[in-house]
C-alpha cells in the first residue's frame, strides 16, 4: 500500500513541479518587466508593460482598436508611452524624422513586427538596415519619377479602358463601388509595371472586387499573424479547401499567395528563356547586381506580394476618398473642374503628370486625400541597434522598438486642425505662408525606408482623378461619411464593419 501511494506521489510530481516552476517563471517575468526592465521607468499602463496580451485583446477581441487605445494612453500619460513590454510609442510629429531617420542613420525594422507579413524576403520585411538598402536599391531606378513618367502611356491605356466601362454604365444606370473600379485600375497598372502583363480586372462588371476582397482579407489577418506568426507554417500543412471553410478571409489570403507564387515562377522561367519584357520591376531585379541568392523565386515571390499589395491599395483608397469628398461638396468639385479646364480644355484632353502637378488646387486635393488615407495604421516600429535616442528628458535604450503612427501626425491639432475633415485649402494656405506642410505627410513613411512606390502612387492618383473628374458626372448612391471615416485598424484604416464602401452612379459625361 505504501508503495502504491508513493508511486502516486511521484506521478503528481510530473504535474506539480513543472506547474510550480512555470508559475515562478511568470512571477519572475512580471517582476522583471515592471521593475527591472530597461523600459520600466517609462510611463504607461502597468498591464501593457506586463504582457503583450493587452495589445492582443484590443487587436483581436475588440476588433482592431489598439490604435485608439494608444491614443487614450497618450491622453493619460503624455507624449511618450510604453505600449507593450518591449516597445515605446511617441506622439510628437516633430520627432518623427528621428525615428524614421534618413538612410545615413541606421534604423532597423523590428523583427517582431515584420512577422505579420509572411513574406520574409521582401524589401518591406527586411529588418537589417544594410540589407534593406541593397534590396531597395535594385528597385529604386524603376520606381523613380523619371521611370513613372515613362510609364504614363501604359497608365493612360488602363485608364482609357476604365473610362470605356464607365461610359457604358450611363445607359445601364448601374451602381458602382468606387473601391472596386479603383482597385481594378491600380491592380492592372502595378501588375503590368511588375510583370509586363496585367491581371485583367476591367473587362466585366466584377472589376477589381475580387482583388479588393483578397487584399482586405490579407489586411484583416495581419493582426492575427503578427500575434501568432507560427500560424504561417501551420497553414502550409492544412488543405486550402479546409482553411476556406473554417476561416474564409484566411483562405482568400492563402489563395492569393499561391497565385502570386505561380506568377513569379512564370516570370523566372521567362527570364531564363529571354522572353521577360524589359523595363519591368522584375526584369530590373533579375538584371541587377544583387547576388544570385537574392534572385531566387522564394524572394521574388515575397517581393511580388508586397508590390502588388502596396502598389494598388494606397492609390485606390486615396482615389476613393478624394471622389467621395468632391462628390459630397459641389463647391469643391466645381473648383477642381474649373482648374482642370485650364490645361484640359476638352473633357478628353490628356495632360502629363508634370502639367497636373502644377495645378495648386488639384495638388491640394490629392495631398488631402493621401493624408486621410493615412497609410499604415498598424504601427511600424524602428530600432536603433547601437544608438541611445533622446526624447526630452527620456533616454531610450539602444535596441528598443519605437514607433509613431501616421494617424497621430495627420490628426495633430497644431498641424491639421479638424484633422478628420477634408480641407484642400489647408495646403494652399500653408504654401502661401511658406510653411512646408508636406513635411508632415507620412502616408508613405519617411526617411531611409520610405515606400519605394511613392512616385507611382502619386502619378496614378493625379492622372486618374483628373481624368475622372474632367470627363464624368458622378453622384453618390446611399453613401455617408461613415463609409470613409476610420473606425478600426485593419493594417490600414477601415470604415465601420458592414460598410458597402463609397458607391456612385455615372449620370453622364461632361460636355464642356
**CATH H-level superfamily title:** Cytochrome P450
Shape: globular
What's the CATH class label?
A: Mainly Alpha
Helix content: 40-55%
Number of domain units? 1
| Number of helical elements | 21
Distance between the termini: 103 Å
Give me the secondary-structure category.
mainly alpha
Spatial ordering of strands, largest sheet: 1-2-8
Q: Give the rounded overall mean pLDDT.
A: 90
Number of extended strands? 12
Task: Report the uncertain regions.
Answer: none
Question: Nutshell version of this structure?
Answer:
The chain is mainly alpha-helical and 512 residues long. The protein is built from 21 helices and twelve strands. It has helices at 2-36, 46-50, 53-61, 66-77, 96-99, 129-139, 145-150, 152-172, 178-195, 209-227, 231-235, 240-246, 248-273, 281-287, 297-328, 330-341, 353-357, 360-373, 406-410, 425-432, 454-471; strands spanning 80-84, 87-90, 108-109, 175-177, 382-383, 389-391, 394-396, 402-403, 472-476, 488-490, 492-494, 503-509.
